Amino acid sequence: MKNEALKDIQAALNIIRSATDKEESSAKIEVLELMTQSLLSTVQSLKPIALVQNKLGDRSKSKRNKPAPVPIPKSLNTPALANNPNATVPNLPNTQI
Length: 97
Known about the structure:
Blueprint: H1 2-20, H2 25-46, H3 56-61, H4 80-83
């Protein structure tokens, strides 16, 4: 039954599409409005209140768990001293000519 209903709906949508292909954009918009109204009434009849609740107020009241900070990757080609911010930089000899 489910597959038959889906096939019927798809056939009806194809008929609507072919009927509106040659129409002006204003007629296409009216068809889309009718389809949208039908869709909204179907969604409202399903009563998906629990799925569509506004969560903005709930976010500020509850504490969100923040993810752990991501570690900074270290290059395999860099010496260990370069990765240490407290390491002292060795003095290089003055090679100016």
